[in-house]
């Protein structure tokens, strides 16, 4: 759960949703351009992490006997491995 003072970053598909920081759809002012730049600078790292998680192909595979507990465990292990990989292969130098 999010705290009252917490917000999440999201892409343009979530414009207007509460508690989300999104880029401005058609920036017109310098402030809007700066906001978009800052949001995109942070989101690029998030998207790279998502790609590393997707490289494990867990989300792409179909589980025959879907067991939420084992799926959640596998996802946790993959996320921990990706975090460990960040030490060896950082997103940017």
Can you give a write-up of this model?
This protein has 93 residues and is mainly alpha-helical. It has one domain. The chain has helices spanning 30-54, 68-88; strands at 8-9, 20-21. It has a two-stranded parallel sheet. The model has no long low-confidence stretch (mean pLDDT 83).
Distance between the termini: 32 Å
Strand content: under 5%
Assembly state (oligomeric): single chain
Helix and strand content put the structural class at mainly alpha
Q: How many structural units, i.e. domains?
A: 1
H-E string: EEHH
Mean pLDDT: 83
Features:
extended, 93 residues, two-stranded parallel ribbon, mainly alpha, 2 helices, 2 strands
How would the blueprint of this fold be written?
Elements: E1 8-9, E2 20-21, H1 30-54, H2 68-88
Parallel strand pairs: 1-2
Summarize the structure.
The protein is mostly helical.
């Amino acid at each position: 759960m999010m705290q009252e003072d917490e917000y999440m970053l999201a892409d343009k598909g979530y414009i207007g949703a509460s508690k989300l920081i999104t880029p401005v759809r058609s920036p017109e002012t310098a402030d809007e351009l700066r906001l978009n730049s800052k949001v995109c600078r942070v989101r690029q790292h998030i998207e790279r992490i998502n790609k590393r998680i997707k490289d494990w192909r867990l989300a792409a595979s179909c589980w025959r006997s879907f067991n939420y507990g084992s799926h959640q465990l596998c996802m946790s292990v993959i996320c921990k491995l990706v975090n460990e990989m960040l030490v060896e292969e950082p997103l940017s130098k």
